[in-house]
Amino acid sequence: MDIISHGLWGGAGFLRNGRKSFWLSFVIGMGPDLLSFGIYFIGTLVGIHPRRNYGAGRPDISSLPKYVFALYDISHSLIVFVAVFFAVWFFRGKPLWELLAWGIHIVIDIPTHSQDFFPTPFLWPISDYTFPGISWGRPEVFFPNLGALAIVYAVILIFFR
Q: Where are the alpha helices (DSSP H) in the chain?
């Protein structure tokens, strides 16, 4: 799924809890992609990594540094998410419900990432299994996602505001 959609799906469940809760869950929903690809993107902007022509499509996987894959595995693992969720709950004495946006991100990515480009390692580090999904960039996935987001936010704004 695209990064903005992840933020919107993550924030949808918390919009009626107030702006702070919405924006926190929005950012957390984008977090797994920001952690892996965002760091690489910033490295490209500041000259650590060579600039690529992204208008030509997705980058060649072999051109990406190994840390992108390591951070992707960590941030897209339901095992890691559950461990962090309960660790935060333990240390805070109460759950930080907005962290569920991270779990939602992973669950959405499982069927919307193909085996060809960054399949979701949701069972890492226990297993390398990835689900053979359909790429979120395909029109039959991308446009229904936008429509579903529009419906969800319309319902939230009409019935809960």
A: 3-12, 19-33, 39-45, 66-75, 78-92, 100-112, 139-159
**Quick check: 31 and 75 in contact, CB under 8 A?**
yes
Instruction: Supply the pTM of this predicted model.
Output: 0.90
In the block, tokens 């992840």 appear at 6
**Residue % of the chain over a pLDDT of 90:** 73
Dihedral of CA 21/26/50/62: which sign? Answer: positive
Burial (CB count <10 Å: 0-12, 13-18, 19+), residue 25: buried
Q: Is 133 exposed, middle or buried (0-12, 13-18, 19+ CB in 10 A)?
A: middle
d(CA 42, CA 149): 28
Query: Own/partner pairs for 117-120, CB < 8 Å, 24+ apart?
Result: 117/58, 117/61, 118/72, 120/76
DSSP class of 60: P
